[in-house]
């Protein structure tokens, strides 16, 4: 109201309505046991003799979201890798992308206006679809096993259909004509260069 004092107007400007807390969204990291050690300390032999307090500090109970994601990614990779030393096959890359995509999906459920991470998720989805399409063409049994182990469903990309208009046909005909003329000029230039090379070789032999 214009009759209000400036202090009261400023207080009203800073006031915010009470927002309800959002419900906890289930995460794909919830199935990790809290007593499991972090990835960097899981295979150390000294961990069998350390104190319980130290084990708790180095377990997933005290771990950050990033450290939990490392463990989850390692679990998915172990399901599909071909050998213990396999770190770069298409199956392993699909498993790594799956862990990233699920994390981004949960983040976007909490923050639906985050366009930057939505773009990253769509890019990762496109990369995973291409890798699965390649596996489907080359080795179908490996493709089926990968989808089953990672609990994902492959959807082939929709075929691209362009609406044919008169303007598009004229533009296409012009592009083809320009390309043909350019090829003729290149052919004449190559013929000229070839004749020069032949003349030089003939002069060198004489």
Automatic annotation (TrEMBL):
Molecular function terms from GO: RNA binding; structural constituent of ribosome
Matching SMART domains: Ribosomal_S15
Keywords assigned: Mitochondrion, Ribonucleoprotein, Ribosomal protein, Transit peptide
SUPFAM superfamilies: S15/NS1 RNA-binding domain
Pfam families found in the cross-reference section: Ribosomal_S15
A GO BP entry: mitochondrial translation
Keyword set includes Ligase: no
Cellular compartments annotated: Mitochondrion
GO CC annotations on file: mitochondrial small ribosomal subunit
Keyword hit for Zinc-finger: no
The family this protein is said to belong to: Belongs to the universal ribosomal protein uS15 family.
Name of the protein this chain belongs to: Small ribosomal subunit protein uS15m
Organism encoding this protein: Ploceus nigricollis
